[in-house]
Amino acid sequence: MTWSDIAPLLWQATKESAYMVGVATVLTAAGGLLIGVLLVLTDRGGLLAARPVNAVLGLIVNIGRSLPFIILLVAIIPFTRAVVGTTIGTTAAIVPLTVGAIPFYARIVETSIREVDRDVIAAARAMGASRPQIVRKVLLREARPGLVAGLTITVIALVSYSAMAGVVGGGGLGDLAIRYGYQRFENEVMVATVLLLVVFVQLTQMLGDFVARRLSHQ
User: Which is higher by pLDDT, 1 or 137?
Assistant: First the structure.
């Protein structure tokens, strides 16, 4: 294949990967943040201490994190079909991407929030701050560098997951690498997709590190 043949394929696959990772990142950030905060709040000594709730949430997160993505991808096919009406294509791939990444990010959120100085929380409570105010203005604000750094790691994991989604026709760079680079032995396509993935990961890491550093100095 010539470059004129490869370029349009790479451009389309890159757009598909960006779409999958972008939407999955937004959904993962929202879901992971919510679950991570609840894990902290419902733990013993938390603002909403409820051990049974904490135990159930912890179990769900642990199960989600223990499944290899390729197995999860196949295991939730009925759920994916119920949500988007199909199991093939970029939109369908967003479902397992999100389901697989939310538990991963939730644990990072939990860890980041637990690192917030307890004296700061105690001071906020002494000043009469409500629970929502403590969560929003103390816990999340103080944990911002860790949350951003964790989200950066999660996005990079999503890039890897999206490439694996190509195995089941999920589209994107992974699908392109399999259909052309592997099945048709087009080595140029394989090399190009690998380079694009490396560049994407590198840019994501650089941006995440920059934002985390800026937040840590505020």
Answer: 137
